[in-house]
């Protein structure tokens, strides 16, 4: 028996990288997955992999920085699965430029995706969790939120001088 048998898990940024890993692990442990991302090809590939190995998953295209997308996707999750037990706020982006070279628009986009989306996800998925009697919210972040760094493997870290 898996650790999350029968649970409905919602993973943002699930098309590749850590999000893909989170989705595959949750599926192996028995959860039904809602995988969201802007990358439709990658998201559908993750869902296909889960379904091909006996799991259950659905992909929804989703811009985590958009309130209207969160409203839509939370309604789709409820109408498709009836509840959400686990939310993994995983989606995130990086800008590889020095502070003085980073545009205001790029900085705003990083805040929208990396910060505001966590608030939106919690705000719009929490009612479904409460209605189901509870759940778990997992927020993924980068170590660069805690420490400074001049370089990431020969590239400038976000907002490094």
What does this structure look like?
- With 161 residues, this protein is α/β, with parallel strands linked by helices.
- It has a single domain (8-141), classed as NAD(P)-binding Rossmann-like Domain (Rossmann fold, 3-Layer(aba) Sandwich), CATH 3.40.50.720.
- The chain has 4 helices and 7 strands.
- Strands 3-2-1-4-5 form a 5-stranded parallel sheet, with helices on both faces.
- It is globular.
- The protein starts with 7 loop residues before the first strand and ends in a 5-residue tail after the last strand.
- Mean pLDDT is 90; it is low at 152-161.
List the SSEs and their pairings.
Layout: E1 8-12, H1 17-28, E2 32-37, H2 40-52, E3 57-61, H3 67-81, E4 86-89, H4 104-131, E5 136-139, E6 151-152, E7 155-156
Helix pairs in contact: 1-2, 3-4
Which terms summarize this structure?
161 residues; alpha/beta; 5-stranded parallel sheet; two-stranded antiparallel ribbon; 4 helices; 7 strands; globular
CATH-derived topology: Rossmann fold
- Please tally the helical runs, counting DSSP H or I stretches of 4 or more residues: 4
CATH architecture descriptor name: 3-Layer(aba) Sandwich
- How many whole angstroms does the radius of gyration measure? 16 Å
Count of domain modules: 1
Distance between the termini: 50 Å
Portion of residues in helices?
A: 40-55%
If strands are numbered along the chain, what order do they take across the biggest sheet?
3-2-1-4-5
Instruction: Please provide the ordered H/E string of secondary-structure elements.
Output: EHEHEHEHEEE
Average pLDDT confidence is 90
Biggest β-sheet, characterized? 5 strands, parallel
Low-confidence stretches: 152-161
CATH class: Alpha Beta
Please report the total strand number as a whole number. Answer: 7
Residues in β-strands, percent: 15-25%
